[in-house]
Amino acid sequence: MQHVAMVGYGAIGSHLMRMFAADARVRLDQVIVGATGLKKAQAALGDGVAIVTRLEDLPRRPDVLIECASHRALTEHVVPALASGIDSIILSIGALANDGMAELLAEAANAGSSRLKLVSGAIGAIDALAAAQLGGLDEVVYVGSKPPSSWRGSPGESVVCLDSLAEATTLFKGSARDAARLYPKNANVAAALALAGLGLDATQVRLVADPSLSHNVHSYTAQGRFGRMSFTIEGMALPDNPKTSALTACSLARALINRVEPMGF
Ligand SMILES: NC(=O)C1=CN([C@@H]2O[C@H](COP(=O)(O)OP(=O)(O)OC[C@H]3O[C@@H](n4cnc5c(N)ncnc54)[C@H](OP(=O)(O)O)[C@@H]3O)[C@@H](O)[C@H]2O)C=CC1
Ligand SMILES: O=C([O-])CC(=O)C(=O)O
């Protein structure tokens, strides 16, 4: 049994709460939310879960902190958690494209002798890509395609009219670094692939709005001295957030289970 503090109670957070409601391995018993989300979380979660807005207000020291909130949550909550010795697992990986963020996280982990884990989220085969990076990797090309509704609130809205899109249209083409900065809620996968493989500047990214899709499709190819690989996933979106694939929550759940199981993937 491990006690987990969770940052963010949105589409992924509420999904994880349901997943672990009756699981003896993981107790999600503390949640950090933004001030505006306090009432909603209190009404949904009841008395069994401590809900606070600051890390220092958590009533007990968690065994691990998980983040399913936003890029800014890393500076607000994950950096101080790591610095105080709490292992952390994050999903908002695109934040590492911001200047100095990776260094800040690493310094905090070193200062607290804690570990930061980046999980694969909505994508897969990151283990193969990270291994290929050691075996000679020359090119990584990622394409993230989602239905038009998944791009609402993003800069894609000024590229096309999402409501009347008739065919698949590229919203962004460029580096993983620029994708992660411009599309913080849609390009965490691009950043994860980049950090596992060729880096944020050399990883090529295309983001596409496609009215023919009902899933979020993530696809990439990689090649180099190690050989050649390709991976595609059609991920079902979470009902509360069309931008977010359900596998993302499962990836965080798997990372938590792996901390307590004697063996596993
Ligand atoms: N690595 C990957 O493959 C993927 C990563 N993600 C990322 O995971 C994160 C969560 O996704 P999802 O659940 O769908 O998003 P939602 O928008 O549904 O939920 C996020 C919740 O976190 C809250 N929140 C945001 N910032 C903070 C903060 N600083 N402190 C406390 N709470 C905060 C939000 O509150 P409020 O609305 O009040 O700000 C909201 O309730 C996002 O950053 C998303 O981009 C998502 C999919 C894939
Ligand atoms: O959940 C997804 O499909 C991917 C996503 O939003 C991201 O990469 O940020």
Automatic annotation (TrEMBL):
Domain named Aspartate/homoserine dehydrogenase NAD-binding is located at: 8-115
Keyword Nucleotide-binding among UniProt keywords: no
Any single GO BP term: NAD+ biosynthetic process
Q: What Gene3D superfamilies does this protein's entry cite?
A: Dihydrodipicolinate Reductase, domain 2 (3.30.360.10), NAD(P)-binding Rossmann-like Domain (3.40.50.720)
What Gene Ontology terms describe what this protein does at the molecular function level? aspartate dehydrogenase [NAD(P)+] activity; NAD binding; NADP binding; oxidoreductase activity, acting on the CH-NH2 group of donors, NAD or NADP as acceptor
Q: What class of enzyme is it?
A: oxidoreductase
Q: What else is known?
A: The iminoaspartate product is unstable in aqueous solution and can decompose to oxaloacetate and ammonia.
Function statement: Specifically catalyzes the NAD or NADP-dependent dehydrogenation of L-aspartate to iminoaspartate.
The entry assigns this protein to a family as follows: Belongs to the L-aspartate dehydrogenase family.
What is the protein name given in its UniProt record?
L-aspartate dehydrogenase
Please tell me the species this chain comes from: Polaromonas eurypsychrophila
Q: Organism classification, top ranks? A: Bacteria, Pseudomonadati, Pseudomonadota, Betaproteobacteria, Burkholderiales
